[in-house]
Design a protein that fits this description.
Layout: E1 3-7, E2 15-16, H1 17-22, E3 31-34, E4 42-45, H2 48-55, E5 60-64, H3 69-75, E6 84-89, E7 94-98, H4 103-113, H5 118-121, E8 132-136, H6 137-146, E9 155-157, E10 162-166, H7 173-182, E11 187-191, H8 198-203, E12 206-210, E13 220-222, H9 227-243
Parallel strand pairs: 1-5, 1-11, 5-6, 11-12, 12-13
Antiparallel strand pairs: 2-4, 3-4, 6-7, 8-10, 9-10
């Protein structure tokens, strides 16, 4: 296989009920409900897992999420049957699963690409020695008020109500660059839905986003939100993989 697919999770494969309400998307009977310990209601199109299973026969599959390990564990059973080449959590900082690479290889690569943590970059802000930190909107306002040296433009929006501050050069593009550096002949697809996904989508050969995302990149903009967006885009990528011989070994 000479193709790789990089997928966001929340807002791309699974969808929070409050976001669906915000987008005026009605829950449909054909969707799969995803229960979580936190009590939040999520939904997934019933075709998502079958499409991913079909896609894994033709491409290397990678998942890149803003969730940490515990947050990902809540929803991971619904994707346990997928043969992921790799799964990254916390915007690429955590390697949650790896098949097509070694964990320590990626961590070495990450340390070279992002030499300074947030603690080193902002020593007066009381941060941990990490590459990213997430905020709810109210927490973000207070944090910026307490740390005037940090600009609002340094903050990524990761979901409708969450934001993240990342170290310089750090983001979802790093897993893509890491895989491409080892497999330069692979054709890459990417799917995301939020500003935090834009660096990742800028690195792939073919990107898909909802039309509502203002993205300064060349990509396919799909006028859908919710599970219908994911099933449509996964079907499109699968069709590309089926009809072109360039993706075969």
């Amino acid at each position: 296989m000479k193709a790789a697919v990089f997928l966001d999770l929340d807002g791309t494969l699974i969808f929070n009920e409050s976001d669906l309400n915000y987008w005026n998307v009605r829950v449909q009977t054909g969707w799969t409900p995803i229960s979580t310990q936190s009590g939040s209601a999520y939904y997934m199109d019933s075709q998502t897992v079958p499409l991913l299973k079909e896609m894994e026969k033709r491409a290397h599959m990678f998942l890149s999420t803003g969730r940490n390990a515990a947050q990902f564990q809540e929803v991971s059973p619904w994707f346990a049957d997928i043969q992921w080449g790799g799964i990254w959590g916390k915007l690429g900082e955590m390697v949650l699963q790896c098949q097509d690479f070694r964990k320590d290889d990626y961590e070495t690569y990450l340390a070279r690409q992002v030499p300074k943590s947030l603690q080193q970059l902002y020593p007066d802000a009381g941060m941990e020695n990490v590459f990213s930190i997430e905020f709810r909107e109210k927490e973000l306002t207070r944090f910026l008020d307490e740390n005037p040296k940090i600009k609002r433009t340094d903050i990524y929006q990761t979901s409708r109500k969450r934001f993240a501050l990342t170290a310089e050069g750090f983001g979802k593009h790093l897993p893509v660059k890491f895989i491409k550096s080892r497999n330069p002949n692979w054709f890459t697809f990417g799917v995301g839905d939020m500003p935090v996904d834009i660096p990742m989508l800028s690195e792939v050969d073919c990107a898909f986003v909802p039309s509502s995302l203002s993205a300064p990149l060349t990509c396919h903009k799909i006028d859908l939100r919710g599970p219908e967006f994911s099933s449509f885009v996964l079907s499109e990528i699968l069709n590309h993989l089926k009809v072109s011989s360039k993706f075969e070994e």
